[in-house]
Structure formats: C-alpha cells, structure tokens
Specification:
This protein is an alpha/beta fold. Helices cover 43% and strands 18% of the residues. It has one domain: Rossmann fold (3-Layer(aba) Sandwich).
C-alpha cells in the first residue's frame, strides 16, 4: 500500500486551534500506530511543520520509504511553511530534506512563491506521485491529519476531496481530540 498524506500545520499563536503545539505527542503516537497497523511501503506528502514532518519522522523510524513533494525551492518552502510556526521544525525539516535529496525522493515543482494555487497543485502532484509509486499493483490510501473542520481556502480539505474523487480510502487522524 502507498500512503498519500496531508494535514494541518501547528497553530500560529493567538489563532483558533486546529493543531495546538501541546497535541504534538498525541498526534505523533496516533500516526505511528496508524503506520504500524497499515504498514505502507511508501508515504508521499509535503514537508510542512506539524502533520507532514511528524509523519515523515515516524515513517523514517519505521523504515517506510518517504517521498516529499514541495511547491517550490526547499529554502523558500522552509520560510513559508516550516519555520513560521512555534517549535523546532527547521532542524527536522533540514534533516529530512537532506536525506531525501541524496536518495532522489524529493520532488520540487518550482511554482512561484506568489502562485495562489501552488498548494492545491502540490496536492495533485502528491496524489500523482502516489499513483506512480503504486503502479498497477498497489493500493493507494490517503491519510488526513486535521481537526475535521473545513476552513475557507482549506488545502487539507482540498486534498481529502481529491483523494475521495480518485476513489481512495480516506483515513483521518484528529489533531484536537484525544
């Protein structure tokens, strides 16, 4: 099975909670349990702070092959989607990106930083990469790590809808509820 993943980033201070910093360990445990139970061959996602990086770490610990798709250059993505939130995400991101560069499992799409559709197009490419890895013989499932509430311009919900439209089993892990 190939697992395509998307989810919430850690909350900005002072915003309504969708993934509070204090829930990291709970979510990490749920993701690890999910990966152990499903045992995917590969995981494909982006590398934003929160759900993506937690999942990539857990997959690495379980020796699951990891693939990352970024909308633009890793240095730009790091400032836009990794180090702009609380937590020590930069060091985790750097380790993951360096490892994947060496193994050719990092896809950089080279969209412009101001491309308003870059993240939706990245979702599409994550699912395309999962399909490429699956070939004609492996199942693809999606994992959505979120609070379960749709926001305006919700990239996670977009990924969920795309996964459903492609007929994939969609699993969910909640970032709020224990």
């Amino acid at each position: 099975m190939i697992l395509a993943l998307a989810g919430r980033r850690i909350d900005k201070p002072g915003t309504d909670p969708v993934f509070p910093l204090e829930n990291i360990e709970m979510v990490r445990k749920k993701i690890s349990q999910f990966l152990i139970s499903k045992r995917p061959v590969s995981i494909v996602c982006s590398a934003a702070c929160g759900s993506d990086l937690i999942s990539l770490q857990a997959a690495g610990e379980l020796n699951i092959e990891r693939h990352v798709v970024l909308p633009y250059a890793p240095e730009i993505f790091k400032t836009v989607s990794v180090t702009d939130r609380p937590g020590n995400w930069g060091a985790i991101y750097d380790r993951v990106i360096e490892e994947l560069k060496k193994s050719s499992r990092l896809v950089v799409l080279d969209f412009a930083k101001d491309d308003k559709d870059a993240f939706e197009k990245t979702n599409t490419e994550i699912l395309n990469k999962a399909a490429e890895l699956a070939g004609s013989g492996s199942e693809i499932q999606a994992l959505i790590v979120w609070d379960g509430k749709v926001k305006s311009d919700d990239i996670t919900f977009h990924f969920k809808k795309q996964s459903e439209e492609q007929g994939y089993v969609v699993n969910e892990i909640n970032t709020i509820k224990l």
